[in-house]
Here is the input.
Amino acid sequence: MSDEQKYTIQGLDEYIRQGEPQQRERSKAWKVAIGLQQVDRLQTSEYLLDTAKRHIEGDISIGEAKELIDSYYKSATGRREVENDRTEEADKVAARITELIEEETFSFTPAQLISIHRRLFEGIYKLAGRIRDYNITKNEWVLGGKTVYYASADTISDTLAYDMGQEREFNYANMNIDEAIRHLTRFCANLWQVHAFCEGNTRTTAVFMIKYLRTLGFNVVNDVFAENSWYFRNALVRANYNDLTTGISETTLYLERFFRSMLLGEEHDLRNRIMHVDWGKVTDGDESQSANKPVQSAKLSDELPPKCKNCTLEEVAVLRIIHENPTTTQKEIATAIGKSERTVKTITVALQEKLIVKRVNGKRNGYWEFIE
Here is the structure.
């Protein structure tokens, strides 16, 4: 990530530290939306940051923020002040990602993926919301200029339907968190490898996964996505590249590190150069978009007993809420993870039976405590 982009994102941190709950959530959404422009090496403008702050403070709605940005780029001032058309793209797409993140709607279907792409890039890409009808290749820095083999154009619809059908039928209920993360990363990598659209696939995949993970109980709008989106893209590339002549095989290891940082708060080395196929030969100068900053949030894995290694995905989602707010209620947990109170009660009972947490001082004025 460039210094300029870091400065822009850090300009929103004050709202996260000191703002009201709604301001904190809006600021996190904007940070992710701005950070995701890095997957295509794009920079947002100062005007975008100023507009984001107005939305965070509640002066304007996200719809009004989008309209202001559109009007800005129709004006002579906007056309004169921006560096290039790609800055306009970054600003508009960042606002649209924020809008999508704020919406509490989602359907796990190919149509949803297509809708996300259309909403992000309408008026920017000619084929926004349309599955590509020709084959593509892309030179990747992390592969030394080589390309991943993407899905053939004539198989995209069938492949999307199959992959999502398989994932929809998959049951995470009795799977421990390590196995669940490995499965999630493979699904994410497969979805990206289809590369259903001519442009904008990584940002579309990221938004789709953010919304999907929310249905599993995880709010992943955090600094990991905001500050490491270039790593996210390169990890997707490495998860889908083979060159057996040089001993390189596809691996989700790097993507798993990203997901573990994002879901569990673990601190992993998220430097891009480590993923490079010529690791050891790459200099720091080749790593202009590298994400070297460690995750700053408290590590959930350090706070939980070793017995939590066998927790399920849903149980870890509940434990994250309890870890952040020990006085939280089952009703508040249900709202936070998008599950029913009955489901949350079943999960918390299971966690107490496993001697991981206990409720102290009853339901009304009590709090959750981790058992040593």
Q: What stands out?
A: Residues 85-102 form the longest helix (18 residues). The first strand starts at residue 357 and ends at 360. Strands lie at 357-360, 367-370. The two ends are 40 Å apart (CA to CA).
